[in-house]
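Let us begin with a simple case.
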Amino acid sequence: MPRHHHVACLVVLTAIPAGAAEVEAEPFTAPSWLHIESRVSPALQRKHREEQQLERMRRERAALDVRDALERQPRAEALVKLPEFRAACGDGDAPMVPDILDDTGAPVKELLQPSEVCARFTGTSADLSGLRDTLSRSDNAFVKAHPTTFRPLCDRDGYPLVGNIVQGKGASEVRTVGTYCTELRAALHDNHAAKADKS
């Protein structure tokens, strides 16, 4: 009769004592193929530098065009169109081009100089369109009752710092910045004349 062998398997269970500290799990480390590249690639850096250089060249070209335009028109005419020449100014409203000089190296007095253009914008808001729009919707009574409200639209001598609203065909007439500043210049002139008479 065959002899059967019985193999006993001993299973040892180790009980964890109550209150024992839990085993701290090791931090998960993502595989290399999951890593996201956070740095900007050299190609994108090069493209950004090229775009900055093109923008700088564009601004310099625009500033030179403004200087040429100032050289071709009388000072009084240029002052009325002052907002058109702001491209001569760079960051902080510093002039990007030199003044127009005569043969002696002195600024031509009959012309509006780039440095003057930028000086007139220094300290003013770059965006006066909101105030200009309010002016266009205001009647004469309101404008006269609030003499300081629209003053930022004109420089210290009463010349406009922002262009007029372009009216569409058939649009109703609006009060323009040019008209307001013209009236302001007349008022400033009258004040200066009155002070001169008193002195």
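The second case is a distinct protein. As before, the sequence precedes its structure tokens.
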Amino acid sequence: MKPRATWNKLIQLILVAVLYAVEKANSLKCYSCKGPDDGRPYPQSICENEETEVTCTSKNNTVMACGKYHHEIMSGVLLHEVEARDCIPEKDCYWIGMSCRAIILAGGECEHSCCYEDLCNNVSPLTSDKLLIAGAYVCAIVYVYQLTKGY
């Protein structure tokens, strides 16, 4: 195979990966579970049982993310636990982090995350689309290398 044909195939592979990423960004799906807004506890176990899949909708071209928030803090002799997952505007990730800092400063435990792959707010990072795309790039590079060396 000629070097020019090899580069054309590599460009096609990269173009497919980019188009896939753009399509994913326009239809982000997240797990959603939100407890009551009155401050009552909403443990992780209940959240996991009540979670649903939602497709994020963006207003004014706002970048959306899948968010996950969990805190535990003692209130007197009771442990107050809250878990929430949902589509959120990317800019809110910062403010959720600030909320976590306040919980930690008050002696509690808090974790939060924002991610950008479908249903990433409830799965191991190793099963995300990033790993799949990275693997595809590695395969493409090895393939092109083998073609240029005549294997």
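The helical segments are 3-26, 44-50, 92-105, 129-149. Residues 3-26 form the longest helix (24 residues).
Keep these points in mind for the review questions at the end of the chapter.
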